[in-house]
Amino acid sequence: MSESTSKMIELLPGGYYIPGSTNIGIITEKTFAGTNVYMVDSGTTEIDAEYILSILDDFFAKQGRKYKIKAIINTHGHTDHAGGNLYLQKKTGCQVWISKLERPYIENPELQAADIWGGTPPHEIQTAYFRPQPSKVSKIINEDVKVRLSGGNTISFISLPGHSFEMTALVYTDKEGKKVVYAGDGIFTRGELSKHWIPFMLNPFKFMKALEKLSELENVEWCVPGHGDCIHKNLSETIEMDSLAILETKQLLLNLISEGRKTSGELLKEVADLNEIKLGFGQSVLIRSTLKSYLAAMHDMGLIKVVIENNTFYWCKA
Hints:
Blueprint: E1 9-12, E2 15-18, E3 24-30, E4 35-40, H1 46-63, E5 67-73, H2 79-82, H3 85-92, E6 95-98, H4 103-107, H5 110-117, E7 139-140, E8 146-148, E9 154-159, E10 168-173, E11 179-184, H6 190-195, H7 204-215, E12 220-225, E13 231-232, H8 236-258, H9 264-274, H10 281-300, E14 304-309, E15 312-317
Parallel strand pairs: 4-5, 5-6, 6-7, 11-12
Antiparallel strand pairs: 1-2, 2-3, 3-4, 8-9, 9-10, 10-11, 12-13, 14-15
């Protein structure tokens, strides 16, 4: 997160975000003692957390108001969204809120790299990016939880599984009924897809269903994705683009398998070549994991099947 982009931008009264490599949501609630702050995600590292605090300090100092971070609300447990938790907890004593299925990944972050790798991972992905410092969860969030703020504003939650087990978007609604959706990695912008046409997903087809839930929200003024530019009012174009990206990858896999049986390694190479992706170690692991998720779901749909021959695992046309 660079200093040049690290500033608070107001989207609705009380609803802000700090743009960066991971966008940080900031929701404020005025009290007699000062201002309560609810933070959506915390960046990747302690450095990000320090930047966030410096922005908040400057913002409230200019207003002549005291503030207190009540809670970090993590959309999900991935390092780039929860890596600043521990520093902020130690520095401010704030709570950490997250959904039930994401909780283990910030309290026991070694699970993240193990899940992505599919076993005990090598040192190349046991780095800070894949394995943040553990932080302690204070509260579990789900769609039944609603936080009533002063002035008639509210915070509510929408479960958006697909990118991770239980990714959860936060919806800030003002007294007029206008909304800011802090969507985490429940939606990817055009800019992000141009850089990462095959973003990491635990279940691409659950991701598509989650997009339908986002499309049903009314009175959305702004949607803040986990990465990239905010989306103003109309989410339909971005939702359609995300769905298209998933369907194109699905069709590409079907086409490749229809040419003849393929191993997972062969499919990874061919998909990367056709999408002009130059794989490094980390990206190779992430895309391999994502393609395995596509293939497993397509297998369960009856579109492809598994054949094991001469101790080799092949994907074949059903």
